[in-house]
Amino acid sequence: MNSESEEYKTTSCCRTPADAQMNENKSQHSCCKLDSYNWLENIDEILGERKFDCVEIRFKNSRKDFFTVPKGLELKCGDIVAVEASPGHDIGWVSLTGETAKLQMYRKNKGIISEELKKVYRIARQGDIDKWNSVSAMEKDTMIKTRRFIGQLNLDMKINDVEYQGDGTKAIFYYTADERVDFRQLIKILADEFNIRIEMKQIGVRQESGKLGGIGPCGRELCCSSWITNFKSVSTVSARTQNLSLNPQKLAGQCGKLKCCLNFEQETYVEEAAKFPDTRIPLRTKIGDATFMKMDTLRGIMWYSFLNGGESFVELSRDAVNEIIQQNKKNIIPESLDAFTAVEVEGIKFDNVTGQDDLTRFDNVDKRKHKSKFRNKSKNFKGNRNQNNFKESGQRNNDNKNVNE
């Protein structure tokens, strides 16, 4: 029994369990981005009420759905269960139960206990898990063979993953394609080859990147593969709001689309940008009008330049610009902008690292190191040679001295 308990701890809930595992809360840890923390787990016991009779079940490839639980069946988060499928049955993990599942159903507009919801049959038996393990082991070979068939048919599509149903009677093929693909002939070939029911499901390039994984330019694991499950559209408006350069090479992620992280700080930038005055309004002074050039949204700094002042910028705080605009509305024209120059505020400063991510930035350093090493070697060689010459000359002088004596 102890060996089995150790097996539970080492097995990841992101894959099918080992044959020796018992079916008891084996995925309480958070090793999968689909895991959910049930923060209302014990609320039913506190209130003394019956548990909500619907649970959320998660499957492979970011699939989640709600199922009704029959009376007398107690489920906990992490239990592996057999659920109703079309056709046959499927195997999944219980991700949410009780009041948390009810709130999640409301959030996803699923309603409460609909007749359309499928049912949980039972807690998965050892035979169910063995069957699940056997069909899951076939997924990689099935994907490789399917790619070969696609190449033979010259179809413009890419198979990213294959997911077998728990009972092995059906398989979902996830693919990406730029245009509409006629894969009717492919389905016939796959059905004859694998003797299963085929379902083709198209996914986007963001989902594909999440399946493949990788390291982003920030040095961390890709957000799409580590925690993002709902992909939102990203537009260049986010880059403009954050005053970023509209460079596709800088803004695009590994999927070729705009980076999802552009949306992370968008609300903060929009909120801070609303506090700035209209940048189209010039600042009138007795030495001329100053026009807006750029601004630092988070620091609240704006830069203005005079039409006849060349390339020199005047740094002003957001409050100072508002004050000048209010004075101009009252026909009060200040002498210059020197009295309103922004005072440097101590705080977090961000260095401009543009251009430092070039792949060839260390080439000159390596050349300098190589030259310095060469110089050191030549100096050592010359020093050793001079020292050897000195020793040889001294030896000759001693020999001559001995001969003369």
* Tally of domains: 4
What spatial order of strands do you see in the largest sheet?
A: 1-2-5-3-4
How far apart the termini lie comes to: 97 Å
Principal-axis shape equals: elongated
The percent range for helix content is: 25-40%
How many helices?
13
The proportion of residues in beta strands is: 15-25%
Cα Rg: 35 Å
**Average predicted local confidence, pLDDT:** 78
Instruction: Please outline the major beta sheet.
Output: 5 strands, mixed, barrel
Find the structural class using helix and strand composition: alpha+beta
How many strand elements?
Answer: 12
What does this molecule look like?
The protein has 405 residues and is α+β, with helices and mostly antiparallel strands. It has 4 domains: 2-128, no CATH class; 138-203, GMP Synthetase, Chain A, domain 3, CATH 3.30.300; 209-272, no CATH class; 276-340, no CATH class. 36% of the residues lie in helices and 18% in strands. The chain contains 13 helices and 12 strands. The chain has helices spanning 2-10, 43-47, 98-107, 126-136, 139-153, 184-194, 205-212, 223-226, 236-241, 248-251, 266-273, 318-329, 363-404, and strands spanning 54-58, 64-68, 80-84, 89-96, 118-123, 158-164, 170-176, 197-202, 283-285, 288-296, 301-306, 314-317. The strands form 3 sheets. A 5-stranded mixed barrel has the order 1-2-5-3-4. It has a 4-stranded antiparallel β-sheet with strand order 9-10-11-12, covered by helices on one side. Strands 6-7-8 form a 3-stranded mixed β-sheet, with helices on both faces. A hairpin with a 5-residue loop joins β6 (158-164) and β7 (170-176). α5 (139-153) crosses α6 (184-194). The longest helix has 42 residues, at 363-404. The termini are far apart.
